[in-house]
Amino acid sequence: MPKTIQEINEKIKSGKAVVVTAEEIIDIVHKKGAKRAAAEVDVVTTGTFGPMCSSGAYFNLGHTKPRIKIGGGTCTLNDVPCYTGLAAVDIFIGATALPDNDPRNAVFPGAFKYGGGHVIEDLVAGKSVRLKATAYGTNCYPRRELDTWISLKDMNEAVLFNPRNCYQNYNVAVNLSDKVIYTYMGRLQPRLGNANYCSAGQLSPLLNDPYYKTIGIGTRIFLGGGEGYIVWNGTQHNPSVKRGDNGVPRAGAGTLAVIGDLKQMSPAWLKGASFTGYGCTLTVGIGIPIPLLNEEIAQYTAVRDEDIYAPVVDYSKGYPELIPGAIAEVSYAQLKSGFITIEGKKIPTGGISSYSKAREIARLLKERILAGRFLLTQPVAPLPSVESGITFKTLNERPVKPK
Amino acid sequence: MQKKRIVLTFPPSLVGQPITYHLVKDYDLMLNILRATVTPNEQGRLVVELSGQRKQLDDGIAYLKALGVEVQSLAQDIKWHEEKCTHCTACIPACPTHALSVDRTTMEVSFSKEQCIACELCISVCPYRALEVLI
Ligand code: SF4
Ligand code: SF4
After folding, report:
1. What ipTM was estimated for this complex?
2. Range of the domain at B90
3. Per-residue pLDDT reduced to its tens digit, A386-397
């Protein structure tokens, strides 16, 4: 019998809902079959904890006396530049932003010690950060300079708003060249010295709902330790990639745009990260509940690491030169064993996304639902799926002629 | 002639004392400073390579210890900050000795000081600065 989200919520409220993690459901479906699993289990919780560069936060700082119009001026938090092209005291900070005086890759590889992601982590940890701003001054906003300490509790709104998170599958990065390279997938040793991957595999939200049948716009999620919502598909959302018989994409596919109140979040689940030679970013913890509305959805959530394949991509040439094609395909079961074998060579693997933290998020979300503190939502609109025909374009550069 | 790489931690009271002078002059040791940090009112740390006769090396180190200087061999000098570690496993392929290793069931990382040779290969790999060279 198919269920509705409303029915599941009634069960959650009365403490009768059956909730399991995306790991636990595997055995249940295997032993009892998808039909019985769907009848017996109400919700499957997923999780992921990895660096997600398209993340950031916007703030309303509160008005100063006299007033300042930071909009159109400049603004930094702990020397990290913020975007000011908004109203007087609304600013946005991106996870990859760097202080103007950061040496970047001037001495290669740069360390990228502190950036936007770290500012967000510091704020969430309750720390005060230094806010500096300059403005051009107007009749209604006469002030031109501001230099003060500020913390989250001083602000009116502090909202995490990430245009692209939660990638559905991802590349495995290797280096075919003769030199060590530094990438957003970590340090890659020459001649297939190591292979780095970045997905929670069988725990990852969108790999448990490959066609976005329950996860949609309006879905309430675990975000950075607090609650958030899916507001749109993420940028580069690409549902049309090659999929396995189980519907699971065999390369990076769907993505999510998410939003949530930063004041509720915790530094345990939002962490600034520094990738040597590459830059700064923010590691985000996300958990998404999947309502087991029917047998088909139960079957999807039973996906195992051995059934999820990722393309192995060369980051010395293939990736930077935008040359399509993978060297091989490997499963997450192989990746998580510590070694993969390519062309007869045994290559050690390293993770960029933390599986143990993903597991903790799935457990935390399960506990919250069991305790009646987290109710499910019906999406208000679906995410574009395979039938949308959406594909991922590269930039078509048009020559700019001098005037 | 023997060589020894050691990490010296000086209590605040000894910072500013001519200790290295005595090592050179009284124990006939060659002293090559590999790294140094001294924070005012805090302790100082020196990573040094001492070379000299075996007996004098031992005597020199005994002299330092008698003064209240903490002496560690360099191999003990990598710190894994467990509370900062996210167990991402990015450092695992970087570590040549398996001092950093993963329990494949829990997917949690642990660090074994005994196996660490302080090669520092893992340091720049950790995105969360959970691995630190103490100097
Ligand atoms: S310093 Fe070298 S041996 Fe020690 S943990 Fe790091 S990589 Fe392993
Ligand atoms: S790279 Fe850093 S955070 Fe990741 S497992 Fe190693 S020590 Fe922990």
Report:
1. 0.96
2. 77-134
3. 999 998 899 999
